[in-house]
Design brief:
Elements: H1 2-14, H2 17-24, H3 28-42, E1 47-49, E2 54-56, H4 58-84, E3 90-97, H5 98-101, H6 105-115, E4 119-126, H7 128-136, E5 142-145, E6 154-168, E7 179-180, E8 188-193, H8 198-210, E9 214-220, H9 223-231, E10 237-240, H10 245-250, E11 254-258, E12 264-272, H11 279-293
Parallel strand pairs: 3-4, 3-5, 7-11, 8-9
Antiparallel strand pairs: 1-2, 5-12, 6-10, 6-11, 6-12
């Protein structure tokens, strides 16, 4: 019954049988069968499903609310029983923006998993605005983002400073300059992240401050795609130094800094103020604080 409720809740939140199956690592027929089983148990239809949409019936909406409560109680019981044996178990859902998720998060989670092998970890990488919404909608217990977030329902704590650098392909006209001035940045082709990204917000701020004339721009929805575009000679970009250290060592990308200004921002930890903190979540927060102090 617990697994069926988990599947039902996931279908409701994603509004999709196929995406629920993908997220839960089960087949779509398994999802459909579990929903049918629930409907048989409840004696009523719970989900209206067409080729265009998936939505809950009135009974389905009621079950969704109760199922969330049941699943939370079940997880809390597992944690409490684990505490009897001083065992950290359960699950942690963490979301991270691309600059963090593609650089430091794997290292943090690797160390965490070694200490607490019984904890199931689900990590999602998306842009900052999506991670913010995910934390507020209870999709993640913890979020790591590249902008300072100020909402009354969230706690925000600085994780670490993040240096931003300008990256160029090896054959770029600016490659001959070790450092760059404001004038150097004018009338070039730029590679941008998508709107909603913390890196995009930072880049837009610099372009505004320096009144940079952009000759042309291309937009990509991940840091990896931005790096590949620059490496292929498509243009120049601003990214976190964390994500290009390997490429710099291999000579695939050139890194340049400004003469008159250090480009930097901060990474932040966010979570809901009313978060029911399990041992698994508490230990991960501790791991993040330890990483912050290194």
């Amino acid at each position: 019954m617990i697994e069926a409720l988990k599947i039902f809740v996931c279908v409701m939140e994603l509004e999709s049988f196929s995406r629920a199956a993908e997220q839960l690592y089960v087949t779509q027929p398994t999802v459909s069968q579990q929903i049918r089983n629930l409907e048989n148990d409840m004696g009523t239809k719970l989900i209206e499903r067409t080729s265009k949409y998936v939505k809950a019936t009135e009974a389905g909406q009621l079950l969704y609310i109760k199922a969330k409560q049941i699943l939370q109680t079940y997880e809390e019981a597992k944690i409490d029983i684990g505490r009897l044996h001083n065992v950290v178990s359960g699950a942690v859902r963490i979301g991270a923006s691309y600059s963090i998720g593609e650089s430091i998060l794997p290292k943090i989670l690797s160390e965490y998993a070694l200490q607490f092998p019984l904890v199931d970890i689900k990590a999602t990488i998306a842009n900052t605005s999506d991670i913010l919404q995910g934390v507020r909608k209870h999709d993640f217990e913890i979020g790591l983002v590249s902008e300072e977030i100020q909402f009354s329902d969230l706690r925000t704590e600085k994780l670490m400073d993040d240096e931003m650098v300008i990256i160029l392909p090896s054959n770029h006209p600016l490659a001959m300059h070790e450092t760059l001035s404001q004038d150097h940045l004018q009338d070039h082709i730029w590679i941008f992240r998508e709107k909603g990204s913390g890196t995009r917000a930072f880049t837009d701020g610099l372009i505004h401050d320096y009144r940079i004339q952009v000759k042309r721009s291309y937009e990509f929805s991940s840091s990896q795609a931005v790096k590949e575009a620059v490496s292929s000679g498509l243009g120049m970009a601003i990214v976190s130094y964390w994500i290009v250290r390997k490429e710099q060592a291999l000579g695939d990308i050139l890194i340049r800094r400004l003469k008159d200004r250090k480009l930097s921002r901060s990474f932040y930890i966010i979570h809901r103020k009313e978060l029911t903190t399990t041992m698994a979540v508490s230990k991960l927060l501790e791991q993040l604080i330890m990483f912050k102090s290194k």
